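Notes from hallway chat w/ T.B., transcribed later so I don't forget. T.B. wanted the structure written out for a chain they're using in a teaching module, and asked if we could keep both sequence and structure tokens in one place. Agreed to drop them here.
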Amino acid sequence: MADIVWRDRGGVRRSTRAWRVRTSAVLVAAVVLAVLLVPPLVHLDEQAVDLAAKLQPPSLAHPFGTDDVGRDLLLRCVYGLRVSLLVGVVAAVVATVIGTAVGALAAASGGWVDRLVMRLVDVFASVPHLLLGIFIVAMFRPGVWPVVVSVALTHWLSTARIVRAEVLSLRSRPYVDAAISGGASRLRVAVRHLLPGVLPQAGLAAVLMVPHAIWHESALSFLGLGLPSHQASLGTLVQSARGSLLAGDWWPTLFPGLFIIVPTLAIAGLAGAWRERINPRRRSELML
């Protein structure tokens, strides 16, 4: 009887996980199609001002309503999501490259180099990401690339730790010892045996970093330190809608907020499925 109950629970969990993955995949596909197809197909200026149509609630003409100067919120949300995804993806890739290089260097060198590098990682990790990001952005003029630099330089630390642990684990494998005993150089061992084993974890770290980067960019732009206020991004849209919210107009805040939450949850859902796939032990534990 107990075995039947456990099998039923495992089946429910597997079906729930499959439904979650499918939903996340559909949402991510919808986001990608929106940012790729809407700007070329909709020949409208997202900066066009129409004071006669300001702060109109959602309707057939404007499904998300309009903002305080009459701009269509649906179009601005899509453009804002486009900018935020650009920042998130580029920053995640750069941070993953930095973290992979630092973690691999620490693990491959060992000794005092490993200890020194990891102590530097601990020092950087002790500073809050947002505070360090504000300090970096403050040194540049507002724009996309200062935000990318800020996010990349504050989000590589966890990747460095993951890659270091993975390389140390791979170095103890018998086939690596056999390659070294056979006269293979360190470079050949790293390229042929260590790097392929690290890439899945590094790729997963990059995907998981995208939602963090989007939230980081949104926070900086909301504080007025990221993108300039006239440029549509999810953070600037929420920031510019504060006055409307206090006046009782909810749609200029709700829809940009949903455009932040839904894509990041969808990306995180796909990343969780990837993590279970590359870690069979964890997946078997979840099925119990």
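Follow-up for T.B.: The first helix runs from residue 2 to 41. Might be a good example for the class.
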